[in-house]
Amino acid sequence: MKITSAKVIVTCPGRNFVTLKIMTDQGVYGIGDATMNGREKAVVAYLEDHVIPCIVGMDPRRIEDIWQYLYRGAYWRRGPVTMRAIAAVDVALWDIKAKMAGMPLYQLLGGRSRDGVMVYGHANGSDIAETVDAVGQYIDLGYKAIRAQTGVPGIKDAYGVGRGKLFYEPADAALPSVTGWDTRKALNYVPKLFEKLRETYGFDHHLLHDGHHRYTPQEAANLGKMLEPYQLFWLEDVTPAENQEAFKLIRQHTVTPLAVGEIFNTIWDAKDLIQNQLIDYVRCTIVSAGGVTHLRRIADLAALYQIRTGSHGATDLSPVTMGTALHFDTWVPNFGIQEYMRHTEETDAVFPHDYHFEAGELFCGETPGHGVDIDEELAAKYPYKPAYLPVARLEDGTMWNW
Ligand code: GCO
Ligand code: MG
């Protein structure tokens, strides 16, 4: 069997998505997501100029060998661009293999470990009252787990507060918009949100919060400690994780569960956090961390330390990633939770898929492959539109972590 050709499809049904389509001499094709929010064109070039010429003619059944070829052969290993390109190839090849086997992908991975996959949605508001209402709407939609983010008085465009109700799209401008941050104001406000949420809805639903890399380790420990009475499911990205050791300090002071990893791109980014039991959930995803082949390795290492998966699932991860993630989540023994920010109807039309939402869970389908396709004709109607993630500055103008 041979890869006869491959192409990159860039489409923007409300936001940009980059999709790799691999064709074979058996007439079966596979698709993989390669979207990197705000840097899409870098991955397009990497795929078109440095990956596709190498894989045409290769046997698509040799998934592991092609992964190793693209990882070791790059010489300049790792990084978000390289690992997204490898992920896109990997997912497309798993899609092909499952189609050739006539099986939904989860069967190829080892079969079902669960029926449905618990997901969490994003509730947000400009202040505590609005956010409490938004969480109530997600409870009414049947969600068992809800992430809550609120605007903070005195902070311009605090992270995680969307402009719509169901959809939150942070890449909001043709050049990075500037948002503000002030940790003291956030530390004085965020705990009050969760106090109010528990007062209003009790403890029957899982509540999550994303620190989005904003706190120093000491501040993160302080926030974790202040949130303990509200029993969060997790506190995410509470401090930048390049220095994995920083989590030792946080761990010494709080038992609030910690989740990290949506911006990791290989197992090396998470290895020390996992082996030192410094986190409770690993957030790596199919698209950012080298595809099914590599995410499986990360999940297996995490399982040795009773750490569970909690894959990233924002709108900037295409339905191709969501569909593949659901097959992965249906199989993986140490599953924790799956993030699920609904895509818009126009996105869903470009990416027809067989997964569905019911009573707070997502269910992958039984279609052979990962169950997601791309309507190329419709995709062509939405040309690429430059869009950047914001940046964040402190009140004195210091550049901070968005
Ligand atoms: C999340 C993420 C998003 C990111 C976005 C960047 O937890 O869903 O933090 O909100 O900011 O995916 O493109
Ligand atoms: Mg996050």
TrEMBL record:
Q: Which ranges carry the Mandelate racemase/muconate lactonizing enzyme C-terminal domain?
A: 128-257
Q: Which cofactor does it need?
A: Mg(2+)
PROSITE patterns found in the cross-reference section? MR_MLE_1
Q: In the Enzyme Commission scheme, what number(s) does this protein have?
A: 4.2.1.8
The record's Gene3D superfamilies line, in alphabetical order, gives:
Enolase-like C-terminal domain (3.20.20.120), Enolase-like, N-terminal domain (3.30.390.10)
Q: Kind of enzyme, top EC level?
A: lyase
Q: Which PANTHER family match?
A: D-GALACTONATE DEHYDRATASE-RELATED, STARVATION-SENSING PROTEIN RSPA
Q: Family, per the entry?
A: Belongs to the mandelate racemase/muconate lactonizing enzyme family. GalD subfamily.
Under what name is this protein listed?
D-mannonate dehydratase
The record lists the organism as Novosphingobium guangzhouense
